[in-house]
Amino acid sequence: MGSLNFYERFSRTFRQNPSISRFLVVFAVSGGGLVAYSEANIQAGPKIDELPESGNEKKRVVVLGTGWAGTSFLKNLKNPSYDVQVISPRNYFAFTPLLPSVTVGTVEARSVVEPIRNIVKKKNVNVNYWEAECYRIDAKNKKIYCRSSQEDKEEFVVDYDYLVVAMGARVNTFNTPGVEENCLYLKEVEDAQKIRRTVIDCFEKASLPNLSEDEKRRALQFVVVGGGPTGVEFAAELHDFVSEDLVKLYPSVKDLVKITLLEATDHILNMFDKRITTFAEEKFHRDGIDLKTGEMVVKVSEKEITTKVIKTGVVSTIPYGMAVWSTGIATRPVIMDFMKQIGQANRRVLATDEWLRVEATNSIYALGDCATINQRKVMEDISAIFQKADKDNSGTLTVKEFQEALDDICDRYPQVQLYLNNKQMSSIVDLLTESKGDVAKESIELNVEEFKSALSQVDSQMKNLPATAQVAAQQGAYLADCFNRMEECTKNPEGPLRFRESGRHRFRPFRYRHLGQFAPLGGEQTAAQLPGDWVSIGHSSQWLWYSVYAR
């Protein structure tokens, strides 16, 4: 109660003292969290529903989506020379890392959302928001087709000069029969609220006097499908909620509760360090969470989940009262249709270049979970790189010539630096030296075939970025910065050399800065994995993860 009064006093202070420009408070409470954010000194800007004036020469930027990527773009866009149109069926931004906490009431839903209109009204940029869903993108004619989220479902068309696609992704059911009809998801605030109601409903049902023992057990069997960060955190939060709160409210059925976590691979949290994976699995076993790895779900009925052990093929069933499906993401239908238009039908998600521009388009950008960067390979441009670096056209490349082009090469092809780091080489000169044996560095000269051989393994370090809030937020901020400086960088390009053409790219390519990953494991035990192979497991790690977004 004291902490609540403390929070209320803070809120009152923010309202009464507008001179406080920005303040962030991060609490870690009982394994959950509470984030309080206040921003004052808001500049007066255009009305958010104000349409551009007739004859307006400003370029229209249409933003599809109000998730991490879209909201980050809007928050960082400062150039008033654009008319910005935001279109999304969700009129708020949700702090998704806290959704598992919302499912059990550790954090209230209202604490993890911010109305998108509050965000855009702070901008000194002309911004309009419409609550609608885009159902078709016409890249050829630069139009998008939308449908209102209101009951009338009114349809309308919006023209654009630039389109920013940040629509996120949908839940991936892998076409498993019965999932859509019988399972709950955990992607939106509404999902978390529905889970919370369902958990209570299951306990209320099990408390009824006319149910048999088996029916009560089934009602209190909670199954989580998916051993990634979301599934693991929800299972941990649910366990704490049951053991700390619900057993006191429903003492007659407390011994009937069972939580099962299903994961198709051999381990949960397989994207984390093995030390975290091992700790999490051991903790779940101690807590009594039934952990089933190496089992895939093949069917979900109204009362049972059918699973199959991948290695042996043994099929079994699990009765359940509530099932939460958290197994990854899939592309939205509108994006799939758009991909067919632009020749990307065989891809899983939209492919962009290193500047987040959709391939085969000139004015469409995609970021967040709906897209992936198709990093260009060094070996595709190896001859052009050699020719550009060989300034004296001698047909051979000296160390000095290569060093002069090195920054542009590493900037354009980040896999080069990753390869050198992996090989523990201080510079690419060491790589050239390795290819020529004991020859002194200053005497090294490589022809084009020797150059190809030296860099032949560099592209092996290419990796797709994970579909996380951290990536999406950084992409939104990067693209906004590009739009802020579009005119400036068109006149004075700052990017790397164009190896196949003349001049330079306008901007530096997007580079993701990994700040670490985090997994709450329940019982105020949390795990953080930060750059540099640094792992923290314990009671004090939670603030680290939430502070990643505290900017």
Written account of the structure:
It is built from 18 helices and 27 strands. It is of the alpha/beta class and 551 residues long. The strands form 9 sheets. It has a 7-stranded mixed β-sheet with strand order 9-8-7-4-3-10-21. Strand 7 and strand 8 (143-148) form a beta hairpin. Helix 6 (189-206) packs antiparallel against helix 7 and helix 14 crosses helix 15 (448-454).
Concise synopsis of the structure shown:
Helices cover 33% and strands 23% of the residues. The radius of gyration is 27 Å and the shape is globular.
The chain-level structural class is alpha/beta
- The total of helices stands at 18
Strand order of the largest sheet: 9-8-7-4-3-10-21
Helix percentage range: 25-40%
Give me the oligomer status.
single chain
Topology:
Blueprint: H1 2-16, E1 22-27, E2 34-39, E3 59-64, H2 68-76, E4 82-88, E5 92-94, H3 99-103, E6 113-115, H4 116-120, E7 126-138, E8 143-148, E9 155-159, E10 162-165, E11 170-171, H5 179-182, H6 189-206, H7 213-219, E12 221-225, H8 229-249, E13 258-263, H9 274-287, E14 290-293, E15 295-300, E16 304-309, E17 315-319, E18 322-325, E19 329-330, H10 333-341, E20 350-352, E21 364-366, E22 371-373, H11 382-389, E23 397-398, H12 399-412, H13 415-422, H14 428-436, E24 445-446, H15 448-454, H16 469-484, H17 486-491, E25 517-520, E26 526-530, E27 534-538, H18 542-547
Parallel strand pairs: 3-4, 3-10, 4-7, 10-21, 12-13, 12-18, 13-14, 20-22
Antiparallel strand pairs: 1-2, 5-6, 7-8, 8-9, 11-19, 15-16, 16-17, 23-24, 25-26, 26-27
Pfam families: EF-hand_1, Pyr_redox_2
Protein name: EF-hand domain-containing protein
Family: Belongs to the NADH dehydrogenase family.
